[in-house]
């Protein structure tokens, strides 16, 4: 009976080691993706070096890196026909 217990204990140790390796690989992959996404600066608009005509308000909003939505409104669509929906029972 001790032989089967030692085999099970060995299998549990190997499984625990494999889980640790899997978690470490997942964490490293996640970190790599985060660093690549941060390096791409996909959330910022690019500006040309020669654009000196930027207003003061434009410079302030890009320097504080805040996200603002413009003044929006909710209204029904205009000019579009109402879609016709047909249902059948089979």
Brief account:
With 90 residues, the protein is an all-alpha fold.
Protein model, in words:
- With 90 residues, this protein is mostly helical.
- The protein has a domain at 1-41.
- It is 52% helix and 0% strand.
- It has 2 helices and no strands.
- It is elongated, with a radius of gyration of 29 Å.
- The model has no long low-confidence stretch (mean pLDDT 75).
Topology, number of strands? 0
The shape is elongated
| Separation, N- and C-terminal Cα atoms | 65 Å
Give the DSSP E fraction (strand runs of 2 or more residues): under 5%
**Backbone CA Rg:** 29 Å
Secondary-structure map:
Layout: H1 2-40, H2 56-63
Give the key terms.
single chain, 90 residues, mainly alpha, 2 helices
